[in-house]
User: Fold this.
Amino acid sequence: MATNGSGTSHGIARTSRARTEEQRHQELEKIRKYRELEDQVRSQAAQKEFGPELFQLTSKLLRLNPEYYTVWNIRRRSLISGLLSRRSDGSSPLTESPISSQTATTQASSAVSSSSSSDATPPSHESQTTGKSGTIAEDSRNVDGEHEHASNKQQDSDATKAAAEKQDLDVLKSELAFTIPLLLESPKCYWIWSYRLWVLEQAIQRLQVPVARRIWQEELGLATKMLTKDRRNFHAWGYRRHVVATLESASLGGESMVEAEFDYTTHKINQDLSNFSAWHNRSKLIPRLLDERGADDMAREALLNQELGLVREGLNVGPDDQSLWYYHQWLMLNLVDHVGKPTIVPHFTLENRVTYFMREIREIKDLLEDYKDVQLIYESLVDYTLSLCQLEERQPNADEKGELVRWLDKLRKLDPMRSGRWTDLERDIGLKKLRQKQTQ
Amino acid sequence: MATSFENLPEELQLATSAHVKYIQSLDTRKDEYDYWLTEHLRLNGLYWGLTALHLLGHPEALPRAETIDFVLSCQHPNGGFGAAPGHDAHMLSTVSAVQILAMINAFDELETRGTGKAKVGKFIADLQNRQTGTFAGDEWGEEDTRFLYGAFNALSLLGLLHLVDVDKAVDHIVACANFDGGYGVSPGAESHSGQILTCVAALTIAGRQDLIDTDRLGRWLSERQVASGGLNGRPEKKEDVCYSWWVLGSLEMIGKAHWIDRDKLVAFILRSQDPENGGISDRPGDMVDVWHTCFGLAGLSLLEYPGLQPVDPVYCMPKTTVQRVLGQSWKKTPLSSSAGSI
Assistant:
């Protein structure tokens, strides 16, 4: 297929568009079948015939074209108005009113409260108080705007409830299974990812908490699988963060997963030091990790040392890897830009901070013994020397100025593409004047 | 600047007439399966094609009346636009509709034959999450900083930005900022050049460029240029012509476009064009498409390639359009980090 996630061609070799008469004929036949299917789906949807037949047709069409967002929406409408046991979603698009645009989770609870008030059949108080775990699931069970279900509801018994929930579970599981091959084929397709999240939200709204929780837990496995196939897929990383946050949330009776997620980034980094997505996630997890561990000053400093050691190990063998340097910058920013932000070592005195900067600068200078022509080394030396001055609220001293001039000269030679940046930098730190003085 | 491009060998000259023909041919390919598979992008595609034609100096190459008819045929009673007739309304196609109508100066048609501006504005404004400030793409609730930018882009063109909580949206963008100066899809997400343009442009429209760490962001963005001259979207990823827009447009807005090698990027984009059949691809030798054609040309325009119309880095439309609609367009304020002019 010539289109990928963004519906555009990426990495597909340019070939002649010329076709034989037979190829053209075959393509026209393919188009005819596709359009016939599309017409069927659209006309049934226009007449609001959201039955099993339309549902099956959407499966067929989405397998041919998972980018067809309108068909994903038709599929959602089919589920809401038939296959799923009851409507819990008062903000259903069938009403053609735009949503209040809250996140799906909050939407669920507000929709529940707004639709219960206009509900044809008021829920019995008994059933409302039966389950303590998960008010959303319990409430949504009692919400049903459909008149045809009203008589069923009156005879609501534990048995029918259980049967309905079993049906929902089966439907939702089958939806999750449906999207897997599509995701494997189009891992960057926004619509599939967002449909899948919608299905998962339905699980929270319609199923008992432990059941919903099991479903969400399995999603971690999917995120892991997708990130094994493509370690940088930002859809999969975002999905993973969302799944983790939901599993941690009260709606699934969760608890913190920060340790496990931190270990996951270690695992990904050990497999591949250049995986900046993993480094990035690590930088987001560390402040929380320390807080939740209740780390004291010593433990915090130990973690900083551990992280600096980890990056340094990488830099010793791959000093031209941007991912490592970006993470190193984040660690160093914790020392300089620490006011009002979550930071690794809030207790550090100025003297501590200066000591760390001087130590890192020394370590990076050592790299120059083995790697004389790696621009990122010089870039970091300039950056950290200026940060050190900023920390001590002073101008570079004579020795430092000499070094900065040398490093910037080296950067111009090694990295002429960014010469405009080096010129600006030289001007900003007042080295231009210094250089002029030296040459006079 | 212009002189250096004229010295390029013939194969690195811009194939203007081939590109115009390529874009004109896009709607005639109904005997190709791919034409039907991409219908969900039709209105976006029209915006990409029309922008490319305007930048090439051939704004009339697509017939104006038919363009208006098609755009209006995609509108729903609630004011939103779908990708094509029969497709559900969505933020992305609604923004494209507004941009197309802006470029061909047809907002009055929206009043007389469409639902009117006010309903379009309401459709967009209703997609704001009033708790967090961000925007959903449609009624099903997917949220992304792309949609926030789209809302700001279209609403400001319509003169209806007051319909949304701008401060809340700005707070949300700030929450999406990372230590490297960049921005992601949502709070906690990795910096990505596409998302960076949307966040920087939205902050520029809101007049809040003061919230951007321009130095750190400029450094990160400039490091997207790789040896081939092309730009990548994230560290250690492959270069791609479309980042000639996402990266360079962001650099332009923060006054640091001179931090990359312009000549090398021009050559990379031109090597990615199909000089015979027209169109630009992600990398040299790959299949062309209208998306890369639009953003490749917009990049070349920012690079002041001779003969191209100047593009506005905030709106990705000709500066003349933005000037006509808003009374002013984005102005380069070199070496300053002052707030945007809009």
Q: What stands out?
A: Confidence is low (pLDDT under 50) at residues 1-7, 87-148 of chain A. Chain A is about 70% helix and 0% strand.
